[in-house]
């Protein structure tokens, strides 16, 4: 049995041992180097990127909506303060308080307990990760740990965040949070599985960059959550701020891996097996074509932008992702199907669809259905041919009309 490495003699400065398979030894001072980067601060961003540069990566709608959130929170706290003062004065005058058990009493309780509740929930969540999750480390999922370190460097973080793989039970999700000065990322196992060589490692790299981007942009800060909690409960307003933050995190993920953005969207849309069979250009085009009141309303109530809108924003970097109104432009080649938003009478009938399939036969090597990718191959968007006309030629894409 090999002996664990011994701590260096007093006064020596031996280099950090390359072999860490024996684990971290608190008594080995070589494993506790002093970082040249400043320590995390309570009232400072985790990122050391210049503030002006970090703001350039933000979605332009984030700061205005964040200011609105802070103003709402300050208004609530000022109102609660006035209510408490007037209530105390009324008690000294032996008057009955004007709002016993009413809305301001409830707001006062909520405002008082909110900081404690945020602290408690974050602490318990982090504790659950630490005692139940599989920690990503140099000796456990080392490829993912390398992605995490790369993302932290790209985002200018003061420290590499903690990261865990947690049981997904079929859910495709990941999130970032924190407790005190600590920040951590959690990736559900079903999403983490895309990172293998047989699947889509660039998609996982983007997702890690996205979650680290939330940390770098300050979205996981304790005081940030306190000062946005009231606003997040306002219908549509809170979700709009959330969508702006997601676009900001997408920008930071794109900075880490431009290629992985669309591929990550294909995972979120089609899952961990069929993601490489999605033509993301056709998918992103639908952000322009799928219009109508209900598609607008469905996006307005979501905490994350519609996936087609996110894909469109990651493909077209000339403008920021849309928060409320859908994108208007697509590349100048037509679709292969009339959009679902068009009246049903312009949809293809079975005879037209059959003629279309016969005219543009699929390459047998380019399968798109029921395929579990067991070997590395290019995404569908890079393998597909662009259909030269639409399935029903009575419908013409807007950019080709006239």
Quick structural overview:
It contains 14 helices and four strands. It has 402 residues and is mostly helical. It has a domain of 254 residues.
Q: Can you walk me through this structure?
A:
With 402 residues, this protein is mainly α. It has a domain at 62-315. It contains 14 helices and 4 strands. A 4-stranded mixed β-sheet has the order 1-2-4-3, with helices on both faces. The longest helix has 31 residues, at 62-92. It is globular and about 85 Å long. The model is unreliable at 8-12 (pLDDT under 50).
List keywords for this structure.
4-stranded mixed β-sheet, 47% helix, 402 residues, globular, mainly alpha, 5% strand
Topology, element by element:
Layout: H1 51-57, H2 62-92, H3 103-132, E1 134-135, H4 142-154, E2 162-166, E3 174-179, E4 182-188, H5 189-192, H6 201-216, H7 222-232, H8 237-256, H9 260-274, H10 280-289, H11 293-300, H12 307-315, H13 350-359, H14 380-383
Parallel strand pairs: 2-4
Antiparallel strand pairs: 1-2, 3-4
**Helix and strand pattern:** HHHEHEEEHHHHHHHHHH
- Note the main sheet: 4 strands, mixed
Which band does the percent of strand residues land in?
Answer: under 5%
Read across the widest sheet, the strand sequence of neighbours is 1-2-4-3
List how many beta strands DSSP finds: 4
Alpha-carbon Rg, integer: 26 Å
Instruction: Give the helix/strand class.
Output: mainly alpha
Helix run count: 14
- The dominant shape is globular
Q: How much helical structure, as a percent, in the residues?
A: 40-55%
Low-confidence stretches: 8-12
